[in-house]
Amino acid sequence: MKRKINIIKMLLWGLILILAFSVLACDEEDPVCECPNGTAHEPEDFPCCEGLDCDCVIAEPAVKEFKDQVMFVDNTQAGNYYADIIDTRTQAGSKTLEDLDIITKLQDAIAAGYAASGAAAKGRFRNVFEGVVGKATITIENNVNYETYDADNRTNVRFNIDYLLSVDDADLQTVIITMVAEMRNLPYAEISKSITRDVKKTHMYQLPLFCGVVVDNGTPRVA
Q1: Is the peptide bond prior to 187 cis by the omega test (within 30 degrees of 0)?
Q2: Per-domain residue ranges for the chain?
Q3: Residue 201 in contact with residue 211, Cβ under 8 Å?
Q4: What is the pTM assigned to this prediction?
Q5: What is the mean pLDDT of residues 67-81?
Q6: What pLDDT, in 10s, does the model give residues 45-56?
Q7: CATH number of the domain at 65-188, please?
């Protein structure tokens, strides 16, 4: 008896599912509707028919922050040089910067630019990608009014996603070298200035431990 009841329950559930899919399935008169680029059907579990009032919500990348990405390596100096790569695009679809190969493209171009630079230019790279907080920040944007990049200060720069998607590796490397030279001449961000002062102050008072320097009434002198 119990087995028969279970079989009946299974048949009923099967019938319910068949009816549900038949109601939700699109026919020739009302085919599956298409959402504009950068949007997706909601809910996404069932087809959306033309005859229904379906929502096309904006699709968003699942990951928007790629922290502590190694941009280049110099084992004669500090070793790895890092950047946080931040995605602030809007209405751009669900593909992440990693899906679009933007992370790797930037890493390759920056590493190649560093390797191709002379001693002075290498110093600018290290200054920009180390700074006083140990890394740079690269923000990726869309719908912007600049063509390639816009440097905010010495360690923060914004890139146009359309440019990154279209530029070849050699041209991007050249632009990166120019960008680093420009950023090196910019001030640090306001939040970093106080850090710079604190770091300098700390180093000054640590000098006696390493260099035989003492502080006399606030003025360092050789002991």
Answers
A1: no
A2: 2-58, 65-188, 192-222
A3: no
A4: 0.65
A5: 92
A6: 556 776 666 777
A7: 3.30.2410.10
